[in-house]
Amino acid sequence: FAKEVVREMTVKAGQKCTAIRRAIVPRRHLQAVSERLRARLAKVVVGDPSLEGVTMGALASRDQQRDVAERVALLARGNAVLFGGDAAFAPRGTGTDQGAFFAPTLLLCERPDMASAAHDVEAFGPVSTLMPYDEFDEALALAERGRGSLVGTLVTRDPHRAAHAVGRLA
Question: Can you state the angle between helices 30-42 and 2-10, rounded to 10 degrees?
Answer without folding.
Answer: 50
